[in-house]
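Shipment paperwork, digital attachment
Item: protein structure file
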Amino acid sequence: MKSSKAWMGLMLILCFGLVLSACGGNKNNNASPSPSASEAPAASPSESASEEAPKAGSDKAFTIRVGAWFIDDRSYQVAFKQGIEDKYKELYPNAKIQWDITLGLPYFDKLKAQLASRSAPDVIFYQNQEYVVDGYLEDLSNEPWVARLNEAGQTDLQTHFQGKTYALPMGGSIGGGVWYNKKIFADLGLQPPKTTQEFMDVAEAIKQAGITPIALGFKDAWTAQMFATNWLQPYLFSEDPDFGLKIYNGEKKLDDPLIQEVFLNFQKMKENDYFNKNALSIDWPQSAQLFAKGEAAMIIQGPWMPGANKENIANGGFESFDIGFFPLMDDKGNTAMIIGSNEALGVNAQTELMQEAKDLVNVVASPELYGPYLVGGGALTMLSDVSVTYDDPVVSEVQEAVSKKSLPVRLESYLPTSGANALIDVTTKVVSGVKFTPADLKPMIDSLERDKATVTLPE
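Attachment content:
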């Protein structure tokens, strides 16, 4: 990107999409049934789908439109775009790809209007499962790349619905975790913590050294949600994958002792001054600056953090350092990371170029295009035959953490949007210094009772 501010803005869009694709709730915050690894649809013949990769030789002349919000002037994006054009030319020498790119959030408003007026691009990059649920995307279950999806790809909520595959997941992204300054940890003789108590001990040692343990930018509400969600995940789901469903069915309550324990953890960290004092008044880019300057040793953020940190260090002239990663954990050392697709690539169900559009998605799924795209964005592979070596070794640490325990759903998958907002409110309240009580969770309980009908349950 041409500026740090623009790059940061785009990363917020990516985070926003991941939050939506991992959530349940109303139509704008949907999570819907997806097949398990054993239930993933197998390729079978159909009139509109191909069992084999498309063959070259068609001299048909046409213009096919591709919509996106993230393809910009970063080098790997430029190469990705050019690679698609070159490889598609091998199939359709006389075809032209028209790129309909609107950077950032305005793209999604534009796309919804285009879909409603039947004027949307033929091939669509998107985030949020609402496009699938609303019937705007073609069923791609019989396309050849579907059989190549790995377990994460087969269970990805954003690209699947009711046992069918509607889009190619463009790499997996974690829902967040703890990034740490390896130099600070090494200087203080610290190792990545394995349990909540060890996490507290590490934070105390860092504070005693005169460094802020954890940088927060809770002026951006989604960062509060990310921290809370990532800490609730191991407490609730690591030993009981059905915890969320039990909440929805009333078998467990939103003031469950395990949920209370997470907010008591926040209270303890606040009381012990493990957060920056201006946590509620600065946004996430400002918190990232604290981390880049070495004024804070840890930050809870998404998969864009390695790239953002390198850019912050370069632009600010700060001393360079390597970063590490570890997932949040419970008292026993359990982890349960959230993972879902970032961008998804589907076909407009209304297109008049159905086979040509499907062939373009097949092109994007080729290892020679898909692999470099993952490396450029620091995303995890969702195709079983594509393995990549990342420029930053910390991504391998993320991959290792994901392999231990990861889930495509989280607590908010079983809550209405109002419940997710109530979760943010109680998190920021505790971090502001207000002593936590179980009564603080009542708004979450009330929201579920009141707005339960708006929740679309994940499978």
